Amino acid sequence: LVKWSIDDTQALNSPMSSPEKWIILLEVNTGYFELFQNWLAHFLLLKLGIKVVVIAEDDMVKEKIDKQVIPIYPHQFVVDRADLKLDSTPLDWDTSEYKKMVSARATHILSKLETGVNIIYSDVDTVWRSSPLPYLAATKKADMIIEVDAAESQGFSPFYCTGFTAIVSNKRTIQFMKDWQKALKHPQLNQPIFNEILHKRSNIIHQPLPAMQFPSGALYFHQFSDKEREKAVIVHANYMVGISSKKESFHKHALWMINKTATPSFSIQLVNSTSNVRVYEAKLDSDQINQLKKDKKPIFAIIAATRSRNDWNLVSETPLQKHLIQSLSQSITEVEALTWDIHLFVAVDNDDMFWVDDINMQQLRIPSWLSLTFGFFPPIPNHIPFNDIAQVAYRRGAEYFCRVNDDSDFVTAGWITLGVTALQHFEPPNLGVVGPTCHNGPQNIFTHDMVHRTHMDIFHHLYYPPQFHNWYLDDWITFQYQKKTLGVDRSMRVRGWEIRHWLSGPRYKPDTQGSKLLPEALVNGRRDILHYLQIFYANHPTTLEIKNMEHKRNKTKHQSAERKL
Fold it and tell me: Measuring CA to CA, how many Å separate 275 from each of 95, 278, 350, 384?
């Protein structure tokens, strides 16, 4: 047992605090899947970038993780199927099935240590409130750093809990895991034998994690004051027997982040109003609202415009409710709803009496995680106020924007992650436009699109050039970022993201004059992009390529003018 202090500045700067030095190992069966989802939601908010290997203890949970997690985070998460054949129901502590599962822990850890990687093993009934990485600097002096279950128990001091353990891959730890694996050949509770081997039969250098930052469930839920709870890094719901007891404990202390988002079942309430903007939220109690707003999240803005028809009677039958909001509630994953502050911004003409009527507005139903903002703007004939509502979202601080129609249906689950990931992979990051596949309507342009707020910064806080009122908005944003305009391709149709457009009929007269304005708008747009890049990315290859294209086009234009003379 080595003595080590978290206040040791030199240790905190150790390379062992780097995410690249570790992988996280988890075990989960279907009965514990909700606990895994809760762990995942907290973990993703920390943005640690550590690779995660999930050991699936049954086929059903592997299928769930393969469908819900791996497609969204393919480079960070891996799921392996365990050799065991276990029930998919929650496994109660000290039962034979539970002993089978925990007795396999040494085998799972050993298989990874033998590949030379360092392991952070974590139970799924934990909540990661902040990063544990600074505490892993202790491993420059120790082979294992381990959560303490009790100061003394069963003749061992400290008595360790195997629910959160950091293990360095070396000859001593590999031999320890082999000894532990052998001792667990006959299924039993793994913790007593772990402590016996560690304290009596191994040469492992081990270090207890500080109980204030890594408390047991008994300490955190039953003994700590609120002030002490704020210091916790990892909260472990051990000592809470059974799934319902663990969930109840997390709920009570605002650590349960899983929300059911299958259908938009909440009515809305007006929370803020100015002369032309009304902000609505789901009608929740104060505890629910505080929980959803506890952590500041980046804003993801979905912007649309709507105009009523004379034959509209029921809000439930409007395209906005029936298609757009309904499909959002079904296509945005629980992880995305926890990662982003998702806002729907809807533009309306202020003479649209159907939507001006607050009684109609109150009949809308939205998911608990969605904020809804209506912007009411002076009507301009055949003008869709996309720029107006995009500016509302921009001023609200939106990080990403997805422009859609009120009769758009999101088909693909996890589409926010697909689009954002595509934008972030541009060079420079977030400079460009991406869009989904939509089989309804033109196939050569984006009829729906997604951009970063960088787009608004470049184009003078406008989403589209103001000379386009309805038609040719799609053409402009598609062509503006294509190679033939820019010299480099920053326009991408995202594979796997699909939207269905119901094409309920235009509620405006198409403005065909935009075709004459498009060429000049593209030239001006290229210059705006180049101006932005020269300020923020002066020597970036993309800047140099666009600059070179601009130079060639100016030269060609000059030579053409000379020939005419």
Answer: 63, 8, 10, 19
